[in-house]
Design a protein that fits this description.
The chain is globular and about 55 Å long. It is built from five helices and eleven strands; from the N terminus they run αααααβββββββββββ. The N and C termini lie far apart (39 Å). It has a five-stranded antiparallel sheet with strand order 1-9-6-11-4, with no helix packed on it. It has 190 residues and is of the alpha+beta class. 27% of the residues lie in helices and 33% in strands. 23% of the residues are buried. The longest helix is centred in the first third of the chain and has 19 residues.
């Protein structure tokens, strides 16, 4: 799981960035989110770790996903998230938990896929329309992902997101079956 201090710093940086990008003052964001101005200041200064509920309220008020608000590595058309950096949002002593593996900002239709690639097999996809985003999580084996000519190796537990208007290929170069859960977000037409 991602380091709590790293998440706190990312949340502080991203909250301030998105608030300013939207042109919201502290008071406007407080009114839109229902989170106090003082709490927003503490979050932007990385002096507190807000609850999941508070973080969701802020993301909703900004019109972005909680993943974007917590993202600590932005900028590349491909985002890789090692399993060790997934965010556990809550857990119980009995063993229940929710883990946010990866997310992306997207509007339009969503598709959820389960993939199984046997050793030595693969498939190449034609580029999708501009704005299409694919998110995937490797649940077993190892996936070789090639996006726009760059190769990425993802072992079980790792996740990735990428802009799928680039040519891309999924391969299993390993000795055991690779299992993947994938979501495809397609931009709305028109």
């Amino acid at each position: 799981m991602a380091d709590l201090d790293q998440l706190t710093q990312a949340l502080a940086r991203n909250l301030k960035r998105w608030r300013r990008e939207r042109g919201f003052t502290l008071d406007v964001l407080a009114a839109r989110s229902g989170v106090s101005r003082g709490m927003i200041i503490q979050i932007e200064q990385a002096r507190t770790n807000p609850s999941v509920g508070t973080t969701v309220k802020l993301a909703d008020a900004l019109g972005i996903s909680i993943t974007t608000l917590l993202d600590h590595e932005q900028g590349s058309p491909v985002q890789l998230v090692p399993g060790s950096q997934a965010v556990c949002l809550w857990s119980t002593e009995a063993g229940s938990s929710t883990v946010l593996h990866i997310g992306a900002e997207a509007r339009g239709p969503l598709e959820l896929w389960s993939w199984r690639l046997m050793p030595g097999e693969g498939t190449t996809s034609d580029p999708h329309p501009e704005g299409t985003v694919e998110l995937l999580h490797v649940t077993a084996g190892e996936l070789t992902l090639v996006v726009d000519g760059t190769t990425y190796t993802l072992p079980a537990g790792d996740s990735a997101s990428f802009e799928a208007h680039h040519p891309h290929t999924y391969r299993n170069d390993g000795p055991e079956p690779a299992e993947i859960t994938m979501t495809v977000s397609i931009p709305p037409v028109g």
